Amino acid sequence: MISQSAGYLFLILAASPLVYYLLVLFSTWRFFRHAEERLRADSGFTPPVSNLKPLRGLDPEAYENLASYCRQDYPEYELIFCVGDGSDPSVPVLEKLKHDFPERQIQILFGSGRKAINDKVAKLVRMVNEARHEVLVINDSDVRVEPNYLRTVVAPLRNAKVRGVTCLYVSTEDKTFAQNLQSIGMICDFFPGIFVARQLDGIKFAFGQTIVTTRSVLKAFGGYEAIENRPADDLLVGRYIAQQGYEVELLPYAVKTVPDYGSFKELFIKRLRWLTVMRHMRPWGHIGLAFTQGLPWSLAVLFVHPSDRVGISYVGMYLLFRLAITWFVGAWGMKQHGLWKKMPLIIVWDATAFVIWLLTFGRRRIRWRNVDYRIRDGMLVPMASSSATNSTR
Description:
By secondary structure, the chain is α/β, with parallel strands linked by helices. The protein has a domain at 41-269: Spore Coat Polysaccharide Biosynthesis Protein SpsA, Chain A (Alpha-Beta Complex), CATH 3.90.550. It contains 15 helices and 11 strands. The strands form 3 sheets. A 5-stranded mixed sheet has the order 3-2-1-4-7, with helices on both faces. It has a 3-stranded mixed sheet with strand order 5-8-6, sandwiched between helices. A 3-stranded antiparallel sheet has the order 9-10-11, covered by helices on one side. A hairpin with a 2-residue loop joins strand 9 (365-368) and strand 10 (371-376). The longest helix has 25 residues, at 177-201. The protein is globular and about 70 Å long.
């Protein structure tokens, strides 16, 4: 009797990812169903904008990325870049931008003037202080945008309740196995989880690819100074905006990012670092991911029930849901073309994501740009004092 009850309990637990997948489909439908109305640009709301971009080194296709911000269909905005010093490889590209776009207000700052573990955030402290306008748009350096970008992402601020805006992102072009794997993982796994979080609890985070807010809202929680020694600054900014009682709007609009990795090993290390940080930032949510992992649960049922229809049914439902989610999010919602070619990678991604998730438990160290850091009480602590000025992003 006990054995039979345990068997039923196991099957119920194994079905939890399938319930989660149903919630994903519903949340995705809710998110994209009025996408065109939500993206309707309000031409009458175009406050002056300061666009802030911290830089370190030279990203792939850097000129095209940065030049896309100089081609904005927006009445008044300034671009502020901050690099470590004049020897940074990005400086010639920035000088070329000033030459090619003389009509744009472009300012180049050298050094943050601060001692902080997270040099990117220290640079943002200086840029916010030197920005001329109240509305701030903040981006990572590997992001490329369309001319309607500023109008689109600033428009939600016309609602006084909204003081944070972020958006989706896709790869410019996938050339390697790892890049294709990452793209399918974003569509079938990462974004679905974001849509569910929005449905259940609202958006209380932001993505570094786009953060739109105001100087006064940043100042209210202590500004970037308050988080310059912490990881996941983009998540924290969104969290602190929401804690002030404001809404953070996630737009059904995607910017493009240029992949900075080529091999599976590089992707694995990057995802392991990111998920390790998330485990420390959201420990209970990280544990809860166990009930969203359809592949290991369905294979476990198949192992326990190899000769009857139960195991096959679980595996079949898993595959059906994963294909449906990928099509619903990627093709219907995000309008990605040729997605069917990447569908076989769904299982590869789910297996990889499960292994990475397991490896994060008990892990307190991350490695970023050849420097080791320990995460202690939500803070970044360099493993060696000489690395205190290195960047984490």
